[in-house]
Amino acid sequence: MKDDSNVAGSAAKTFAPAGTLPVSRANPIGSVDLSLSAIGTYSSLQAFLVGIENSARLIDVRDIVVKGSDTGVYTYQMTLRLYWLR
Known about the structure:
mainly beta; 4 strands; four-stranded antiparallel β-sheet
């Protein structure tokens, strides 16, 4: 597995599945919520989000929490939802 701990100039602090959605045999699409925390500049967050937008995998950004800083380096907490075909 590729190490993406320093994606777009930000350092990932935590990376953990937030849980899966209920399985339905009628629905051929699976998904999982992924919660992560990172530290970086605002421009690194923008680059990360552009990477998600341009990803071949379908990913929703469910929420983002930004904690401010006087140094220009922020703490980000976000939840992403990843989808796949079963």
